[in-house]
Structure formats: C-alpha cells, structure tokens
Amino acid sequence: MPVIYYSDDKWVLQACVVEGISINRGEVKKEASRCYSKAVLFEDWLSLEKLQNFIEQILQGSFSLGKYLLEANNNSRQWTKERQPLSNSYMSNAGYVWTSKFHDQVNNMYGELLAPQQPYYPDLHEAVKHWLPFPIYQQGSNDSRKGEVILQLPRNQSIF
Known about the structure:
Elements: E1 2-7, E2 10-19, E3 34-35, E4 39-41, H1 48-60, E5 62-65, E6 68-71, E7 80-84, E8 95-101, H2 124-131, E9 148-154
C-alpha cells in the first residue's frame, strides 16, 4: 500500500506498507487505487513470489507501481527487523516489522488532493493517515516513517 507523490519531475515514495494478512482474518476487501494529479494511493496484492521480487527491487533501488517508476535517492537500503509489542505505532497487533529507507529526503506535498470520483483529502498527510494501516501517524513532517518501505507480519499462529 504505497503512497507516492510527484515532486521535482519525479515520483517520490511518501511511505509504503506491505501487510501480512492472516488466513483466519476472513475476507479482506481490496481497495481500488486512488489517483490524483500529483499523488497516488496505491493498493496491490502480492503473492510470495511477487513479494520476493519487490524486496529485490527495493534493494536495487527502483521499482514500478504500474506506470509509476520510483527510484531511491540513497545508496544504503538496509533492512532492519524489530519485534513489536501489542501496543505499537506500526500495526494493531504484536509481531515483526522490517523497515528499509527508500527516500532519505521526502519533501512535504501540501495542498488538497482533489479528483473526480475520488475521496477528498485536505493534504497528503491526511491521505496517508487514512490510507495506511498505522494505528498512529504523526501529522506533518513529524512521522519518522516517511520514505520507508515497511513489511508488517502480525503475530498470529496461522501466519507463523
């Protein structure tokens, strides 16, 4: 579930969450991506094979979301793994989170997200807060997850 925006003649990653979904969770509705003139809230479902390819692309420094090409602006895209307690800012369950910084410098895109047949957001931060599955998202430039790719694996017996 990436959120990207257009700035300085290129697409930039605001944040991306890949969420492991339990088979016991029941039916999960796939949301349609939301396209605005300078921002896209993207949703895709990945098989394990596609997830492995996606992780390799992150390590190489570029990946595509349909017609949108994103290229990293840093040379170090190391993955960090953290075990998360039940109360955490990444997901509503305890589990594991892997993070990798894709963009070091993420500019703030201000202004409304407005397009026909799309929900209105007063700014990109409100869109991220609504779109990505974070229990807590810091408004404005305060959230440290900007520019990151985040893999979430909630602790659930049917996943592990």
